[in-house]
Amino acid sequence: MNKLIIFVFAISLAAPASSEGWRVRARERFQSGHYNAGDGNGQFAFRGLTTAFLLGYEKPLDWSVGLALQRGGLKRNGSQEKANATTIGLEGKAYLSKELPFYLRAGILAEAFDRVGSDPARWAPGIAINTGYEFLIKKVGIAPEIGTRLFWGPSNRRHISVTAGLGIHFYRIGDL
Question: Quick one: pLDDT at residue 78?
């Protein structure tokens, strides 16, 4: 995973120097919530770190839209049971203004929640809503955010979580 993060970081620096255009963005996210597999065993609480990448079209500190891919390992609270979560979907992001860079991120997603050693993961549709603020330090944006995610599926299967994330964005001269 570390090599992938370095690769994505290098590509994002090599992007064209125009202010509006295609970008690759990455963020790290802490996730905590409840999952019910719909298998009659009830729900369990989990937490863990996931890494998200977004390939999208962006107008810096105005809006962006793109394809998001997230993957991470989660751990059941109070036990050693582990699960992998893979999420893919479309996300949009809009800022209040360049002077006050609060933003809202929303997405239509699909997630596979795979408990290690259990039945294979099944995909479930869902939504995500996040809000944050981007602190600008020279040409670097540090963007903490908080949000919620909700996925649902057959047999009362559902996954509800609260997320806290951090994105670091590198801008070039002319971007802002």
Answer: 85
Query: What residues are paired with 60 via a beta bridge?
Result: none
Q: Residue 166 has which token pair?
A: 């951090």
Within a domain: 74: yes
Half-sphere exposure of residue 37, counting CA atoms within 13 Å on the CB side? Answer: 17
**CATH number of the domain within which 12 lies:** 2.40.160.20
pLDDT in tens, 85-105: 899 999 999 999 988 999 999
- For the residues of 108-140, what is the DSSP string, one character each? EEEEEEEETTSSPP-EEEEEEEEEEE-EEETTE
Q: Is residue 145 part of a domain?
A: yes
Looking at the structure of the chain, the number of domains it has is 1
- The answer on pLDDT for 30 being more than 70 is yes
- Assess if residue 6 is contained within a domain: yes
> What does the alpha-carbon distance between residue 124 and residue 102 come to, in Å, rounded to a whole number?
30
Give the Cβ contact number of residue 136 at 10 Å: 15
First to last CA, the chain: 31
Average pLDDT over residues 131-148: 93
Q: Is residue 175 part of a domain?
A: no
Q: Which pLDDT band holds residue 3 (cuts at 50, 70, 90)?
A: low
Q: Which helix (H) or strand (E) holds 5?
A: helix 2-13
Q: Residue 17's pLDDT is what?
A: 43
